[in-house]
Specification:
This protein has 351 residues and is of the alpha/beta class. 30% of the residues lie in helices and 15% in strands. The protein has 12 helices and 12 strands. The protein has a 6-stranded parallel sheet, with helices on one face. It has a 6-stranded parallel sheet with strand order 9-8-7-10-11-12, with helices on both faces. Helix 7 links the parallel strand 7 and strand 8 (221-224). Helix 1 (22-38) packs parallel to helix 5, helix 1 (22-38) packs parallel to helix 10 and helix 7 packs across helix 12. The longest helix is centred in the first third of the chain and has 17 residues, at 22-38.
Length: 351
């Protein structure tokens, strides 16, 4: 592992510059777990955008969450220098910079943290004391790249990494159920139909409708999860349900904070999700998860859990990693049959 603060075996005090995306932050927990496994006394503070705080609060490895005062894409050199200098008295011994941008390395540099490690990118070598060249073949997965930064450059990790494990708060789950008038008497199929990245990662509403009708007929409930940006597709799904079954569907999009969504997803029997932040949240809750892939691939950021089925049509142009289908047909997703997803659900239920 990275050498400690001194030769006497004292624990390290880490400042982690965290990612901005929900899914990436979930995967970063594998790094935090690795650092604590090295020495449980190690102290971890994470600097990241404020919307990631509900995730960090569910990670017992994180002692402190520092809200980044900077907007995404904003350099603001002077403010980063000022903020870094304000951290100088905090006693950080190590910094790990997960984003590859130049600006993300400025705060730990100006904080004068003795050991500053990260992957090479955007000419930031002078800002890091340990700036590493990434071998993408050796570390094909994002989680591997995160965890590798916990080890010396000449001793890369071998074998598996610890999977993320978000904590659930039962009392807050009960409060959320009460506020939203939800009950858990019947099994819940959680559908996460949104995808912040774009429509090329979003299984169309028609597939969700057929799948939801199938499980509503089996006397399940269906809960729809997502942000305000997902309300349109959720409304389309709800409107397409069979009239006699629609009462069993609850549209929660835009009605829950992230912390509530974490707790409520923990109550699901199975989760069906596009490649999205909520997919990674469900995996970190160890829920049976059917993950549907369109333009993206699980080859870089797969859900980290042993209860996952990865679903893709495998057509010739997949993956293209485009936000919108460049050919206009979206067959990578329209070709995903609800019966295929239902088969995955039924297999997952037997695990």
């Amino acid at each position: 592992m990275i050498e400690g603060a001194d030769s006497r075996g004292n624990p390290a005090k880490y400042l982690i510059i965290g990612p901005s995306w929900i899914g990436d932050m979930v995967m970063a927990q594998s790094l935090f777990k690795r650092l604590k496994a090295d020495d449980p006394r190690n102290e971890i503070s994470v600097m990241a955008p404020s919307w990631t705080r509900p995730l960090l609060e569910r990670m017992p490895e994180v002692a402190e969450s520092l809200d980044s005062p900077f907007q995404r894409g904003e350099l603001n050199w002077l403010s980063r220098r000022r903020y870094g200098r304000e951290l100088r008295g905090r006693g950080f011994t190590h910094a790990i910079v997960l984003p590859n941008s130049f600006k993300s390395a400025l705060t730990p540099f100006h904080a004068g943290i003795p050991e500053r490690v990260g992957w090479r990118g955007e000419w930031r070598d002078p800002l890091l004391t340990d700036c590493r060249r990434l071998d993408k073949k050796k570390f094909p997965l994002m989680v591997q790249r995160f965890v590798a930064l916990a080890f010396p450059a000449d001793h890369p990790p071998v074998g598996e990494w610890p999977n993320p494990e978000l904590q659930v708060r039962p009392d807050e789950l009960e409060l959320a159920c009460r506020r939203l008038e939800l009950n858990r008497e019947r099994p819940v199929l959680a559908l996460c139909p949104g995808a912040e990245y774009g429509s090329s990662k979003q299984w169309p509403a028609a597939g969700h409708i057929e799948l939801a009708n199938l499980y509503l007929r089996r006397d399940w409930q269906v809960w729809l999860f997502g942000s305000n940006n997902d309300r349109a597709i959720a409304a389309e799904i709800a409107a397409g349900l069979e009239p006699g079954l629609a009462v069993g569907c609850r549209d929660l999009t835009g009605r829950t904070k992230l912390a509530e969504a974490i707790d409520l997803l923990s109550a699901a029997a199975v989760v069906v999700s596009n490649d999205s932040g909520l997919m990674h949240v469900a995996a970190a809750l160890n829920k049976p998860l059917a993950a549907i892939y369109g333009s993206s691939s699980p080859g870089f950021t797969p859900p980290l859990s042993g209860k996952v089925e990865l679903l893709a049509t495998g057509i010739e142009c997949q993956p293209c990693y485009r936000r919108e289908c460049p050919y206009g047909h979206l067959r990578c997703l329209t070709g995903m049959q609800p019966a295929t997803v239902a088969g995955a659900i039924d297999r997952l239920r037997k695990l």
